[in-house]
Amino acid sequence: MRPLAVIGNVNVDLILGLDAPWPEMGTEISVDSDELRIGGSAGNCSLAWSAMGFSHQIAATVGDDVFGQWLRKGFGIRAVRWQEHAGATTVSVGVTHPGDERTFLTTRGHLPKMRLDQVMAALDLEMLAGGIALVCGSFLTDELTIAYPELFASAADHDIRIALDTGWPVEGWTERNRAATRSWLAACDFALFNERETTSLAGIADVGEATRQLQAGMRPGGIFVAKSGALGALAATAGEGLIHAPAPEVHVIDTIGAGDVFNAGFLAAMAEGETTATALSRGTSAASSAISTSPRRYDAKPRHRVAEAAR
């Protein structure tokens, strides 16, 4: 199996369950539930890999406050080489609404200060050689994002395949953000975007066509994946055309982090040498298991057949 690593945003998530309309300014309401937990795309992926039993590295940073200490403790030995920034750790408050809708309020905190030298200090590139590194949270990690060309070059020097999940840009898909993302894709072997990110980045309403177009701008042999929630996931490859994996029907409890869990299942399968179709199935199964269980389980065993490739 190829070694695995994840690089990027780890932060604190406070999840509040709101079974009512958004409150008016100056008022107070009670909520049904609350949960303080480790969050961020990189953090969620690492937790999923750990639950699945996959050894991996994680490169992240934290603030020098009590939340930073709490995050370090949550990752144990994997956080030994993390560095701290002066100031507060990034906190994201997620408010869930009826019908699976969600609203997020996120502080900038430590994430914009994360630097390339801190990533390199947290990783053992020799042990990761020949493996896969997932890079997350591109529009939150300002200083690191500027250094992506150097990061990707270092990965290439060690035969490390890069997977990218940028997340949604805070200011939206401006022409500048589109151009930057396309330049990153040119150095990537895997792209893991949700459906709305895919169509917005490509400027094409049809997710299949958008997926095809974006895959064409990746490294030779690259795989572009569009995650479509309850509809499953779609992948475009140069040799296989479009491949679709449906998601099993489940009773949804909590969808936060579902895309990150998909990333964990998909990339673990690719690291094991599985086909794209099997990896898609593993990713959708893992995400479906996570969103339908409490406490969460991360069952990556496919419970459905993958659709034949659409060419």
How would you explain this protein's 3D organization?
The protein has 311 residues and is α/β, with parallel strands linked by helices. The chain has a domain at 4-10 and 40-61 and 113-291: Ribokinase (UDP-N-acetylmuramoyl-L-alanine:D-glutamate ligase), CATH 3.40.1190. It is built from 11 helices and 14 strands. It has an 8-stranded mixed beta sheet with strand order 4-1-9-10-11-12-13-14, with helices on both faces. Strands 3-2-7-8 form a 4-stranded mixed beta sheet. Helix 2 links the parallel strand 5 and strand 6. It starts with a strand and ends in a 20-residue tail after the last helix.
| Gyration radius from CA atoms, angstroms | 19 Å
Strand order of the largest sheet: 4-1-9-10-11-12-13-14
Question: Low-confidence segments, ≥5 residues, pLDDT <50?
Answer: 302-311
Second-tier CATH architecture of the domain at 4-10 and 40-61 and 113-291: 3-Layer(aba) Sandwich
Query: Which fold name fills CATH's third level, the topology of the domain at 4-10 and 40-61 and 113-291?
Result: UDP-N-acetylmuramoyl-L-alanine:D-glutamate ligase
Percentage of residues in helical conformation: 25-40%
Number of beta strands: 14
List the helices and strands in order: EEEHEEHEEEHHEHHEHEHHEEEHH
Distance between the termini: 30 Å
The chain-level mean pLDDT equals 92
- CATH H level of the domain at 4-10 and 40-61 and 113-291: which superfamily? Ribokinase
Largest sheet: 8 strands, mixed
